[in-house]
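Thought: the user wants the 3D structure for the chain below. I'll pass the sequence to the structure tool as-is, report back what it returns, then summarize two notable features.
Action: structure_tool
Action Input:
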Amino acid sequence: MEEQGTLASADEIAPPSQASQVWLRVVSAIGLAIIAYAATWGGVLPFAGFVLAVALLLSWEWSGVVRGDGIDATLIVHGLAVAGSVGLAAFGFVALGVALLIIGTIIVLALEFGARPLLSAAGVLYAGLPAVALIWFRSNEPLGFHAILFIVLVVAATDTVAFVTGRLIGGPKLAPAISPNKTWSGFLGGIAAASAIAALFAYWISAPVQALAVIGLVMGIIAQMGDLAESAIKRTFNVKDASQLLPGHGGFMDRMDGLIPVAVALALAVLFLDPQAPADALFAGFGR
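Observation:
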């Protein structure tokens, strides 16, 4: 009995194997994907509820990385601005939602007198703008559901294939001072996958294949630049993961680093084409 107790204690303190970490990563990713898909399929309000939860978690993680743990007045203002903007966007007041984010950013900037006030203020836009953008796309029926699916699939393909290609091929480093593990082979593999998935998706919904393939390519580049930017922020504050909310992944910042800039960039691109129907403009290949 004593030997069994000793063995159990050793198991408890032993580090998890690489295989178990991979499975943990896969299971948590599948679980998050199921929840996200169900919320997106459910309509604008369920999707907005899911986006709100993620945006608030992103706000908390940003605060933890930039200013340290704990709830302070800045985080409360940050969260209220993000929550208010999501609510406005969910009921069709997208412009007011963006305006509220700008006001929240200014207030946070005024509240922060310590180190790096600009980064604290930028967190409001970091969490809020992609949330508003995604809700804006989802609200455009009947293509809103497909728009969200398209964005997520292209970003996921970029991230996954970049990781696999980089591991299998290796080669010169992309930005060793920021992220030592990223390679040019992974970067090129990621953008190729993004373009291919975008083209296949376009073919599936009878959208312009060549135009969407080019858009997917650009999305892949932006997604990987977002990944590098988030790595630079974490390196600045000597943080490995934004949090431990997602087993095997770290935090939501670690998972959404590509999706965040892609959502904002696409929203800006279609804003001047058709502000009433962003998903329609996207699937027209920006040709409207």
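Final Answer: Structure generated. The CA atoms of residues 275 and 281 lie 9 Å apart. Residues 209-236 form the longest helix (28 residues).
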